[in-house]
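Hey, can you fold this?
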Amino acid sequence: MILSENFRIAFRALWANKLRSLLTTLGIIIGVAAVIAVVSIVQGLQYLITSQLQGVGATFIAVNPLVDNRGGGIFISRQVKLTWEDGLAIQEQVPGISLITPLILGGNQVKYRDRQHGTTVFGVNEDWPEVGNHTVERGRFLSRIDLEQRRKVAVIGQKLIDELRLGVNPVGQEIYVGAVPVTVVGVMEERGQSLGFDNDDLVFIPFDTSLMLFGRSAADKVLLRLQAESPQVVERVKEGIIQVLRRRHKLGADEPDDFQVVLQDEFLSTVNSILGNVTAVVGAVVGVALLVGGIGIMNIMLVSVTERTREIGIRKSVGARRQDILIQFLIEAVTLSALGGAIGLGLGYGIGAGVAGILPGDWPPAHVPFWAIALSFGFSTLVGVFFGIYPAGKAAALDPIEALRYE
């Protein structure tokens, strides 16, 4: 019997029992749909994070303080100091650094006349636009003179123009950041939202001016953001930063670092590792659902063999070989599981796209990579092969005389 005839018989048998076929493949449909839905959301998120981290360049370096728990528990742990003086020492002693800025941030109220709005305030220096890959659209960014003279100036995001109704050109307007009056000197380019954070709802002010808002104690909790001169010197710069900070923090040879130096590649590697683990765990859990679906297919195929025993006897009596019967029932099982996989693919993408569409913020659209489609569809097909072998073998092994006598 030619292969196409086997497929025709398989589709006819499944169509004759549409509801039973649908219920049989339900486990496969749910399993594949769950895999595709989760993978599409996670892959979309991974694409967004990767593109944003790549935007700051391969020369980006972040230095963060760590919490010291060596005192014996979280209740007596302390926040390790990291200061702008540390940053200046790094800039002076470590070759290969092109730009460096301190960074402190916190929430505060911004006021203009009778209007006010809660936003995020960043205290930085003049290097921030290049370090953070965030350019000015109107006016200018903070200058070195602004920093040296501790001027009360600010560069704002696009959203504040709307929230405070500052007009078409807010440059030159005076607003209040907390209790500090500042003059707007520039507006940052619009970047939208990402991961729940509005990149246009922010204010940049000179680092020393920000200490008037956050208090002098904030000067001990500075984050440092740097750009190396080239990707080739990034590792050497990282090692230099570690050496300088260990000397300044008076750490012994056997003491661990009380700070963290992270490169862009390490950010990407960490993010990809976390999201990859999430995908793997979900995939393993859903794999169990696929196996349960496979067991359902095997049970239904056994029922089908029993129901069609006389049909099998007739075919064998007119010359059908053992392998013809085997292939016929195997194709029927594979067709059943493959149809379930195809329906699951479409359903899973629809769920993923729907969830990504209703999530708050600028959540990235669902994205299903080819490997996820091939893996899900291939695995669902293999489930049909694996769990279809036993019923097909049982049908092929039937004695034609006994099969014809079956009532």
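Oh, and this one too while you're at it.
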Amino acid sequence: MTPPVSRRILGRVQVAAMLVAVLAPLAWMVLSSFKVSRDVMALPPQLVFTPTLDNYRELFLRTDFLHNTWNSVVVASGATLLGLLLGAPAAFAISWHRTTWPATLTLFARMAPGTLFLLPWFILFSQVDLIGTYTVLILTHGAITVPVALWTLLPYFDALPRALIESAQMDGCRPHAILIRIALPLVAPGLVVAAILCFVFTWNYFLFALALSGFDTKTAIVASFNFIGEGVTNWGALMAAATMIALPPLVLALLVQRQLVSGLSSGAVKG
């Protein structure tokens, strides 16, 4: 049945409002990256201006931003892999044993402010001389991504038929073999969603990267902080850095958008 005209108009207005809310800040950021600083701060905002590439020249020719971006790729990829390696077996075990308290515990830890863990984490890794290395950044961000991977994958494992798992057990299949050969292939869409969420969470995490990275391992989001000075901020370069930081997650989401939408909708139904 065709919905009434008023309902269709209302729906299109809602979609248009949502697109404006999502895309307007993004467009403002990209446009600002091609302006000089005084035009970025101009009121009312200037939609017609003379574009310049000076901000990107400063970003890539006068700073180590390219190296900082590579550091972000290494840390985010390593932390995502670590989060999935720990989160997927944990989600499978929690789902199989119907024990929710470990998952709830990880959720509480994830919701706690990062400053709560920062000092003990810093002292711990200072004792083993790992501050400023990729190892400490990957371990730290990996710990952050475990609850994300766990809670994303739980609905998928819960939806698996228990008879399938019990049949594998009766055939002598051990738990790790059941996980690798049977469960993980069946929850592949959930793995895609979990991987993207873990990557984005790690890519954008600022606090631990600021405190635990060194000069050679500084990530892009920490390096962008250099454009904010005491009383003076290079807004044009900062917007150029923000544009480059936002680009990889957007490209990643666009490349796997079909699997991402399928995985999110499946997780919502199964959850």
